From TrEMBL:
<comment type="similarity">
    <text>Belongs to the BolA/IbaG family.</text>
</comment>
<dbReference type="GO" id="GO:0044572">
    <property type="term" value="P:[4Fe-4S] cluster assembly"/>
</dbReference>
<dbReference type="InterPro" id="IPR036065">
    <property type="entry name" value="BolA-like_sf"/>
</dbReference>
<dbReference type="GO" id="GO:0005759">
    <property type="term" value="C:mitochondrial matrix"/>
</dbReference>
<feature type="region of interest" description="Disordered">
    <location>
        <begin position="112"/>
        <end position="136"/>
    </location>
</feature>
<protein>
    <recommendedName>
        <fullName>Bola-like protein</fullName>
    </recommendedName>
</protein>
<dbReference type="Pfam" id="PF01722">
    <property type="entry name" value="BolA"/>
</dbReference>
<feature type="compositionally biased region" description="Basic and acidic residues">
    <location>
        <begin position="112"/>
        <end position="126"/>
    </location>
</feature>
<dbReference type="InterPro" id="IPR002634">
    <property type="entry name" value="BolA"/>
</dbReference>
Amino acid sequence: MLRRSLVAFARRPLSTMASTTPMEDAMRSKITEALKPTTLEIHNDSHLHSHHKAMAGSTSQETHFRVVITSEAFKSKMQPARHRMVYALLKEEMAQEGGIHALQLRTRTLEEEQRQLEREKEEKGEPIASAEVNTA
């Protein structure tokens, strides 16, 4: 009997299974659809804050997030405007009971991300590939 149940569960399409991270899934979907990011990292840091007084009695395991977004939609916008764009996308998730309580954002363009990667390589002493080739 148990074996049949496990086999039936294994054959069940993933789309019909309840997600264990519905808040993260909603965030990923909205950000991806609206901003078309080249990089999207969503880190659930809720476990680091579960002991805080504000979290007492909360059953939600998805309240504190750290998000890194690289998107050309941020081009020519300052950080506050970029953050407002993301807050507007996630306003429902932030307003609902047990929803997003804290959101740490790193928003950048592809060029900013590439510059950051180059700086990190320099700090590690790794050679940086130059875009220019000297043929002389």
